[in-house]
Task: structure prediction
Amino acid sequence: MSANDSRDILYRTLLRHALVRTVFLYFIPLLLLTLFFHIQYRLVLRDIEVRHQLSLAEHQAGMLDMFLGDRLLNLTQLTDNLDFLHDPQPGDVQKNLDVLQESSVAFVDLAVLDAHGVVLGYAGPLPRLSELNYRDEAWFARLLAGKSSHVITDVYLGFRGEPHFTMALKIEPSNQVRILRAVLSPEIILSHLPPRASDVEDDLGKLTNMGSNIWLVAGAFCLIGGLVIWRLSRWVAHQQHEALLVEKDLSLQLIHAAKLASVGELASGIAHEINNPLAVIAEKVGLMQDHLDPGFGRSLSEEKLKSHLSSIEGAVYRCTGITRQLLGFVRQTGIELVPCDVPVLVDKLLDRLLGSEMEVSDITVVRDYGPQLPKVITDPGQLQQVVLNLLKNAADSISGPGTITITMREKHNRFTLKVNDTGCGMTEEQLEKVFMPFFTTKAPDKGTGLGLSVSFGIVESLGGELSVRSEASVGSEFTIELPVGN
Result:
């Protein structure tokens, strides 16, 4: 994968995260708040409408009660003629119905009944009703059994089979019970009730239209908010992307500076490593010159010449290996994950860069490698720098003879590398600061304080963990834990 592809993937990831954060932190709460207020608005509007309808119903009920009360008064005026009630004649009943209808057209018919529900006289559009008996009608039984002398029913169907009001009076002329019943039409009553003038309907209409427009406003808000969020997220992602690139570049520069500092600390050991093969080369060249000088009277056979040349070649390759290892270590590169044989990497560090230093310092290196260790998907250059820093710190903490133990194990797809030393160790206070930049327990001319902090960052960037255990005057143990597959 190229660097440009990696940057594009990073930018898209940052843009996606910025969009998600902006939507969930700003847009969705505003949308939910708008929805909440819209629901509350609809509930309030519905409550106003219900209250208005109740008010209208109460007003109409009051008007109806007044109207029916007036009609009851009209019906009561007919009871002044007791002879009519005692022995009603068809003409008299019709005449009284005409009187009622002059007072209100809502009256439909009029009938006189006895105490047994038998119709004694009837006037109206349904003569068949005069043949019926009303004793089983609820209003009739209530009127006879009740203390009130009148009854007014709600709208019901009854014998007519159509909605109507029944209004009845109980009269007792000459110690006989008579029921004066009149029927009123609800349609006619409703048409004659005066409507209630109110501006509430107009206000409700305006409020309803306003509520309908809220969704248009919400849609426009969503569209504009979406555009703003998109532009804002792109700007945030661009700023974060640039900041991460700068941070990554600075991190690489810091790592490279730490590498150069480590090379400076290794200078004496490397010089010793190179001096040994150079001394071999100088010795063999001197011998060959002596054999070729006639003054010495020596002869150089072909076998001896080949032996000297072979020694020189071995010394040259050894110098080349050391310089190649050193140049590969200080080369400034980005992270490149490849399969890495960690034991081989550590052996090269010990044999080519640190061998002489360990030997001169009288430090014994114990290599405790587990069997059949797998290769780790990691960056060999970065891991090499971490291991070198740990080994250098371990060597610097040992004064006089000591031991450094390197342990490698693999368990549950996790690769563990431990560097244990018998050095001076650290106090609890020092342990708390051990991975902080520029903190060091070494003398000012022997350490920069960057090694462990840079190593900690490298291990984290490789998906692993770097930890430490230490005890003053006993020693320290640093542990690198990496995933086998990355």
